[in-house]
Specification:
The structure is a single chain. This protein starts with a strand and ends in a 13-residue tail after the last helix. Helices cover 51% and strands 15% of the residues. Helix 2 (33-41) packs across helix 3 and helix 5 (111-123) packs antiparallel against helix 6 (134-143). Strands 2-3-1-4 form a four-stranded parallel beta sheet, with helices on both faces. It has helices at residues 15-25, 33-41, 48-71, 85-97, 111-123, 134-143; strands spanning 3-8, 28-31, 75-81, 101-106.
Length: 156
């Protein structure tokens, strides 16, 4: 049975680093939207509206690819962040409908540590990533809905 792996956490929590490790360990198809976005459109944050529309489209296309892979028995990693419980529940349910399991990987990092990591990241921006203003990350911290321990268990 294939498994859908959901990478949950805020920017700078280590989601992509863990996703790359899991990709090797589970012979999985990894989908990291920022990597696709920067390759297709560059660092297009000057027009935030167009950027957001493009990003949503990329996530939808990667999910379509992911559903096909899951139906073929291939493990899939979605490196989206999944800040909202409702979003995690939606993808978990879709995976189960496809006959796949679902594993949530929550990278819990203290807000002070996230802000320190952001400073370091912004000073030496890795390829395939966007510069994130500190005030944006602070705002996102208030939006994030951490998963409960019961929701972190694997559903197979």
């Amino acid at each position: 049975m294939s498994t859908l792996h959901l990478m949950v956490g805020l920017p700078c929590s280590g989601k992509t680093t863990l996703a790359k490790k899991l990709e090797q360990e589970h012979c999985a198809l990894r989908s990291t939207p920022d990597e696709w976005h920067t390759r297709l459109f560059g660092l297009d944050l000057k027009d935030l509206g167009a950027h957001n529309v493009r990003h949503v489209l990329i996530e939808k296309m990667l999910w379509e690819l992911g559903t096909r892979a899951l139906s073929l028995g291939i493990n899939v990693i979605l490196d989206y962040g999944f800040w909202a419980k409702e979003e995690r529940d939606f993808f978990r349910a879709r995976a189960l409908e496809l006959g796949a399991g679902c594993q949530i990987h929550y990278l819990e990092v203290a807000n002070t540590e996230l802000l320190e990591r952001l400073k370091s990241r912004n000073a030496n921006l890795p390829s395939g990533t966007f510069h994130i203003p500190e005030d944006s990350l602070q705002e996102w911290m208030t939006w994030f809905q951490a998963p409960t321990p019961a929701k972190l268990e694997s559903n197979h």
